[in-house]
Structures are given as C-alpha cells and as structure tokens.
Amino acid sequence: MPAKPWASAAWKKQREKLLENAKCAWCGSAENLIIHHTHKTRNAKKSIERPIIKDLIREKVDSGEVDNTKTILIFRCPECGSSQEVKGRVTTTCKNCRTKVILNQVEKREATKPDYYLGRDGYKQFIKQYSLEIKARVEAKSGMSVNEPDYIDLECDTIVLCNRCHFALHNGMHLCPACKQRYTKYSLCYSCLPEEEKRKIHERGLYIREIEEEDLEADRWFAEFESASPERREEMLREEDENYSKEIEMMDY
Q1: Cβ distance 155 to 164 under 8 Å?
Q2: pLDDT of residue 215
Q3: Where are the beta strands (DSSP E) in 104-251?
Q4: Whole-angstrom Cα distance, residue 229 to residue 226?
Q5: How far apart are the first and last CA of the chain?
Q6: Partner residues linked to 183 by β-bridges
Q7: What is the average per-residue pLDDT within 91-105?
Q8: pLDDT at residue 47 in the model
Q9: Strand, helix or coil at 175?
Q10: What are the CA-CA distances from residue 24 to residues 124, 172, 224 (Å)?
Q11: Are 116 and 57 in contact (CB under 8 A)?
Q12: Is the pTM of this model over 0.85?
C-alpha cells in the first residue's frame, strides 16, 4: 500500500464517485462527508484467529516444538501429601484438602512448567512462523478464505459518515437511536433516558459529568475544525483515522 493512499489519483477518483449524492449513514447529513474504513473483515478474521492462535501456541509449547517454560516452586502438602505450585508468599491453601499451609514450614523445590505467554515480540514471531498453519485452520473453521480487502479499495468495508459522526465514532460513541441528535456511549443519550434510569444515575453519583466532558472535547475539536484551513481539515481527519488504526492494532495484541 502506498505511504499516502489518499494522495493518489485512483483514491481521489474512488472517493469522488462514492460521495456523489451520498448521505451520512448515521444522521443522514449530506454535508462534510468522508469515507470511514470499518475493518469489518479484519475484525471478523481476528475473532476467528485469536482462539486458534491460542490453541496452536499451547500445542506447540506442550509438544516442545516451541521452547517456552518458566521456573516455579513446588511444595508438598503435609496433610494429604500432594505436590502443587506455590501460590503465595507466606501461606497458601492446598487445592486437594484445603489445608492452610505455612510455606516456611514445608519443603519446597524448583520445577519447570510450560509457559504459554510469549510476550508481544514472541507472539508476532509465532504468527509469522506459523502463518500458513494458522491460515489453514482459519479457513477450515470459517469454511472459506478470509482475505482482508486492500485498504485503497474504498468499495469494501467502508461507510460514509459526516465529520461529526466520524469524530463520535472515533471516541467510542454512536448516535442516540431515540432522538437522532446527540451522541452517547450507552444505549440512549442522557436526555432520552427514562426518568427511572436518570434517578439511578444520580444515586450512583455518576450524573452527567463524564458526558459533559466528552461533549466539551468534541466541541473543541469541531471549533478548531470549522476555523481551520482546508489543508488543516484534511490533516485533522487523517490524524483521527491514524489514531483509530493504532487503537485497532493495539487491540489485536
């Protein structure tokens, strides 16, 4: 993918075509529209991949193909004689007989056990090394080949949003389905909540401070956006997209 796909002629041509006579998928506005990547296919693929990768790591570590162990302390329960891992500093409880054991009064020894946590770099290396096996298992489970669309293909896994809805999405909010005017992280915005729900919020001490702070942050962003030059507006939108992509990548690991 090019370093700046949005600067290419093909990208601009696709964008112009998709935004022609388009409306925001959330609020229906026809002004200040942008194309947002939903990463629907990537997220679906990750939801299938994660448990498969987890199981594969266990298989490879248990078989010894991936050498990853950790040292633990083992104690012998004075009551039932079972050996088990130390789970505490001063005292622990036997899993078999539930006897409370004072650790400095029993003999302990070191042992090794499989460690299924590979760390961030180890996880990446594992995925790279066993990519073909992971892909085969994903396709076997899903019953089809799960290929992510090219990022520069704006007709796949995208949605048209206005600037305001796009900003709300990047901040984990959605348009209230009742009033279609305010944004919220919850099922309904505060104004549309039933009175009983509002009372509960007051009783829990949550009130609307958090919502007001989110509105303030959104207002600051929009104030800057509206007074910015066209170049700065494009830069601000790209920054929002880049921040969103980074959040998605962090979630993947």
Answers
A1: no
A2: 62
A3: 108-114, 158-162, 174-175, 183-184
A4: 8
A5: 22
A6: 175
A7: 85
A8: 85
A9: strand
A10: 37, 17, 21
A11: yes
A12: no
